[in-house]
Amino acid sequence: MKHFIIFSLLFSIFLSCSTHQESRTVVVLDKDWKFINEEVSGAEEPATSTSGWETVTVPHDWAISGEFDKSIDVQETTVIEDGERKPMLRVGRTGALPHIGVGWYRKSLDIPGSFKNKRIHLEFDGAMSHAKVYLNGQFIGEWPYGYASFGFDITDAVHVGGENILAVRLENKPHSSRWYPGAGIYRDVRMVVTNPVFVKQWGTYVTTPEIQNGKGTVHHSTTLVNKSGKEKEVLVETEIFDANGISVAFASEEVTLQEESTIDQTLDVSSPRLWSVETPVLYTAITKVHQDGKEMDSYTTPFGFRYVEFTNNDGFFLNGERVQLNGVCLHHDLGPLGAAFNVSSMHHRMKLLQEMGCNAIRTSHNPPAPELLDLADEMGFLVINEAFDEWKYPKTENGYNKLWDEWAEKDMVAFIHRDRNHPSVIAWSIGNEIREQNIKGGAQYCQFLVDICHREDPTRPTTAGFNKWQAAIENGFADIVDVAGWNYKPQHYNFIHSKFPDWKMYGSETASTVSSRGEYFFPAVERVHYTREPYHSNSFDMEFPRWATSPDREFAAQDSFRFIAGEFVWTGFDYLGEPTPFNVEWPSRSSYFGIIDLCGIPKDRYYLYQSKWTGKEVLHLLPHWNWEPGQQVSVHCYTSFDKGELFLNGKSLGVREKNPSELYTTYRLVWDNITYEPGELKVVALDENNNPLKETSIYTAGAPAKIVLEADRTEITADGKEIAFVTVSVVDENGILCPTADNLVEFSVSGEGAVKAVGNGDPTSLESFVEPNRKAFNGKCMVLIQSSHKQGDIILNATSKGLKGEKITITTQP
Q1: pTM for the full predicted model
Q2: Annotated catalytic residue: which of 44, 123, 295, 509?
């Protein structure tokens, strides 16, 4: 996180300047919340006792520490998007964790006398769901959409110079989601204190409409609010700083301000450095508002210089150069952490994706945590930012259809205003597989949202993910959005393009291949919506639901049709809930779609994408090499090389070349019907003259003997939030991974940290995510270690009965 931390430090310097001048104070409300997971009459009243309530830290997901129960949120439904014709009784669809019901949060706020005559605001980045906010027993406001960010002015209810009781009621209704939504105040909350004249929440809008001839033009809009009750003469100053903190442009304007006004300023920057995937250079605009020579407010807006274009024939362009969108879809949960957002966890995930060659993210199917977009800006990801999974016509009984009439425009405007300054955001997705596609007249809802996007941000195109391609065309949806996204339609790309050659298109959701890390079944053949006991899918990456396909088939379409801008694979990581194809089987309770498993360990498929999406020399053999003597085994090699020779204990099993005449030999090397014998399986990559280029081997493992620990970092920040991810491997006496080991590993921690969560990537495991132990799943599991607020060492000790344990030290730094 080094570069992100550097920019954050620069950002905090700017903030501290304004705080020092007392124009704007931001207080993160994270500690000492009281919580109870039940309805409490009068919980908003300060006199109501919180004795017996739990003390928690926000972000908080109340359900992730609970027990799995197959009776939770069982849904009998027909998923027409999946081609189903009759209702199915789905267990585990929303994760089988106790997220349903009411939760109350309470926090004491001491508002000092120095805040008299100030405006005091609360900002919530996300609360799941149906939030109702109270202060000192007074109802402040509500915001039902659990993925939305929102804020309230609480000034009139504040007791300045005394204690104030903030209360938040949340309620997750049954049958309101298709996946695990999480529960609670699962993103950050802030108290923002300003003078009566201030910049509105998300009140700046920065665009770079012209970048040419060594000059970048910046259009900067600032919306000011005046709560003084009197007309005010103010001076608005905007200064732009480059990535090194050097001032590069300045503008000022005097304004007569009544209640609310937007001030437009134009600034020119000489020779701006462009934001791109390879060089994600960020600039910072600082807007200061002065009245009578005194600073009234200071507001900071990071942004980047870049220009984007989707084309009808050549795909996507960034700064005039074609960029293939090698993207993934991400749900919002963080596996063992649940929905509670953690910056270091998301950074860890995005780093894994980037190393795989991923350069784009679709925030399926909802607004993400704002920090995800901060990271995307900093790391160089392109983002399709998605608003909704459902409009007026329901997919679930208590889903967004209940909110649409009153809240759709409010949610859409808040979503765009919050995120429109991020250079990483290249398009607004207004929906995913919306059922209105199939309805005559349903296009009016599509047009409604597109019009909002064009009104609030005319600089970015609109898009949506269409799964019913014919209906989306016939009913006008695909023509209304600026860029058509096709879910699982590689076989139709060329036909659609031939009929509508002016349309701009991409694969908004692709593959949906299912696999369980380290699970292999022979022969390795393509299977559609296949279920088996013990409820695992084949890691040869040839199994998928009835609507979906394999990575190879989508690769072939992407390679064939340059007009397709790229793809967004479903999904980058496994996520809680939606355990397709095991929709009715228990204990399946999380997805099989991920390229990386639920706890963050790459599956074999990771290396298939890496071989396609990067210039790295990739040579990855599967399966593992512990089978029954004489068993017939399939061997695949995911590789960037075109040719390879396979050896078993030194004996050649033949040379294979990638062969585009067969789908599953186009992007991988395949040896079928290999007679297993223990020992060494080796593949040697060859050039066109059969000269060796690179080799890799896998070995037959002996009995489990010891534990090996590997941390993603050995130094983390002592902020009580940052997490180190420690992979735990069970190996034999020679250090070879035991590929079927399921030993129970116990964890103990001393020093300046604690076990935050555990996981192993097994979608059928009912073990707790918070207990300090975990069974290995196919030889591996993961423990997440979180820092304290003190500098020092964290010592993690991992033990297991009959195995040699191991310790690892992680240092916390200020």
Answers
A1: 0.96
A2: 509
